[in-house]
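### Sample
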Amino acid sequence: HTHTSLYLGLKELTLPRRCAAAQMPDMIPEDWTHVGRVDPSEELELTFALKQQNIQLLEETLRRVSDPDSPQYGKHLSLEEVASLVRPSELTQKVVRSWLQSHGVSDCLAVRTQDFLQCATTAEVAEKLLPGSRFHRYARDGQSIVRSSAPYSVHDEVHRHLDFVGGLHRLPPKGKDVRKKQTKSGAWVHLGVTPTVLRARYNLTAADVGSAQNNSQAVAQFLEQYFHPTDLAEFMYIFGRSFEHLSQVDRVVGTQGGGKAGLEASLDLEYIMSTGAHIPTWVFTNPGRHESQEPFLQWMVLLSNMSALPWVHTISYGDDEDSLSAAYMTRINTEFMKAGVRGISLLFASGDSGAGCRYLSKGQNTFRPSFPASSPYVTTVGGTSFKNPFKVTYEVTDYISGGGFSNIFSMPSYQASAVQGYLKSVAAKLPPASYFNASGRAYPDLAALSDNYWVVNNRIPIPWVSGTSASTPVFGGILSLINDRRFSKGLPALGFFNPRLYKLKQQGLFDVTEGCHLGCLDEKVQGNGFCATPSWDPVTGWGTPNYPDLLAALLVD
C-alpha cells in the first residue's frame, strides 16, 4: 500500500520556539521536557477530522447571512441544518469507521455534524493505526502531555477522507504573561482601567445592561486556566456597584481544575461580565480529561455538538501561523464558518507581539502572523492605551497590539477596499515588502483598551494587567449588549460581524491614528511593525467602540 503523510509541514522542524510540526524528541521546543516513551497500554484519545461536503456552499451561505445588503441577512441556520449541509458522505464515514474497526478502535463518539470522531485507544494500537507515530510524554510548568515525536501516515484510500488526526502533534502555546513591567515614576497614581473607566470611555450608561431573555455570552479557556467564583463576586463588589450586574457564571462547560485561579481566566471573565453586564455568561474550560487531548480542538468539537450556544464567544488564544499545518488551519476555518452561519460571533485576541518576528538566517526576517487571529472567519480584536494615562482621554496604539497579514489566507472581499486604501495611503512608510504578504487576510478588525487593567485574582485586586486578552472580552461584552437590544426589537443576532463592520466605515467607532506596534529588532525595521493611520489599519483595525453610535448603526436591519 502507498502511504501519504497527513502532516506535510516538515519545513517547520527548524522553528526556534514551539511548533506543531512532526517533531523528533530533541526537536520539541526547549520549554518542554522529554519525560520518556509512554507505556504501550497508555490510554490515548485521538480526534479524527472527517472530510466534509459542500464547503463552498457553506462559505456562500455565510456570506449571504452576514452581509447586511443580502436578502438572506440574519437568516441563520440551526445546528441540524449545518449538519445536513456539511455532513461527510456515507462513503467517507464508512471508510474511516471500517479502517478504525479493522485496528480494533471502536470506542468512538461522533458529534452531531458527524465530521469529528473522538476515539479512545492505546498507544500501541495508535502506533499501528498511524504508521510512523511514536508517543512520548512531555512536561512543562507542571503540565504533562502525550504527543507523537514523529510524522504519521495513513493509507491513501483513508487519507482522502480525512483532514487531519488531532492529539498527535500540536503542543499548547505558552501562556502569555499578562503583567506589564511598570517602570514609569509615579506609576501608582496612574488611573488604571476598571469597568467604570471603560464605561466612561465607551459611553455606556448605568442603564446599558442586558435584559433580553434569550441572550448569553461566553469565554473559552484552554491553557490550564481556571477562574474562582469568589474572585468574580469580589470583583463585582469592588468595581461593579454603579451598574446592574451578575456575580455568578451561568454555566461551566468542561471541568474546572483545582489550584490557583489563572490571571488570564479572571481577566476574561471579569471584563466580559462587567462590559456585557447582566448577561448570562458561560465558561468553556479545558476539559483536562486526557493528556492526549488538544483543548482548543476539544472546544471546536463541542461547538459542533451543542444546539444551544451563547451568541458571542471571546477567546484569548493563538499560535504562530507557521507552527501549524495549512490543512489543520483550513479545517479550523471551516469550523468557524459553521459557527458563523448559526449566528454566533467569535472574537479572538490579535496577540501581544505586535507584527511578530520570525528571525531567519542571513537577515531575511519576516513578520510572524498569529492564528486564529489571521482567520478570515473571525473578528480579531487589537489593543490601545490612553494617550494620557492619568485620565480618560483619547486612545493611541498599544505597542503590543497584534496585527499584520496572513501568509496562508488570502484577503477576504469584505475588507479589500479598506486594506487597499491603507496600503496606498501609507505606501512610503510601509515596512519592506519582504516582511509581509500584502495580499493576505489583514487583521485586527477593531480594538479596545488593552493596557493597565485591574483584576481580582485569588481574592487580591491586582493592577497593571495588560494584553489583547483584556480588549477582546470588552468588545465581546459590547457586542452582547447590542445583540440584547436587537433581540428586544425582534432582530436576529449579529453573527459573523466582519462583513457588516467593514460596511460601517468607522461609524460608531473611535478612530485610533497614533502609534506603532512592535516588529523585528533588526536594521531594516528597527523594532517597528505597522503604524496606526486614519481609517482602518493593521494595528487597531477600525478603532474602538463608541457604544451609543455603534448601537444606533446596528439597530437598523
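The radius of gyration is 23 Å. This sample (Tripeptidyl-peptidase 1) is used throughout the tutorial notebook.
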